[in-house]
Amino acid sequence: xxxxxxxxxxxxxxxxxxxxxxxxxxxxxxxxxxxxxxxxxxxxxxxxxxxxxxxxxxxxxxxxxxxxxxxxxxxxxxxxxxxxxxxxxxxxxxxxxxxxxxxxxxxxxxxxxxxxxxxxxxxxxxxxxxxxxxxxxxxxxxxxxxxxxxxxxxxxxxxxxxxxxxxxxxxxxxxxxxxxxxxxxxxxxxxxxxxxxxxxxxxxxxxxxxxxxxxxxxxxxxxxxxxxxxxxxxxxxxxxxxxxxxxxxxxxxx
Length: 254
Prior knowledge:
This protein is of the alpha+beta class. Helix content is 39%, strand content 24%.
């Protein structure tokens, strides 16, 4: 049933790349929204770079939840599942990094994963896999064969690629990023390149605002920290007072 691995074995790598769909899950440290996104394995050029490393191309979309969450805390889970007669679910628990399209390392990395021809690629998500889990997948439905079809199959959509190609041709893609990809639904800073395009030159201020917003949403932790700080100051003050009294007493008897 459930099995855990410290790294992904070659046979499971091969199995993952045979699946047509994978899912990403991420969440902010605080906030209401937990994000889950389906993606095409080939359409996003998902690739294993080693037994504990993988990457995929993040295409332009109407939101930037994954990018914002990874920038904030680095946590992400990737899930593959089978839709055929041999059931299986596989999760990759990862620490992630974002490599945006305007960074110097981006062209080399997108070539490395085989995503050069993907229109609208805004980032590569780099995955550091620290745990792999497989389970039965018995609850996932089987992709049935239609009565008039020779076999069941997934077919890639061209809609997103066509849309991105048009935006690029019109020179409108960066403006789309600026309008839609600067912050997550919880107000967490998103694409750095989009924030620069929107005129946010001092991104440290935006990051500070996000940090302040995050800690104010954790009043229990904030109050606990303040209480511990006051207690620590009190203990240190008492120790200093006692040390002073001892020093004076010793000086009197010397």
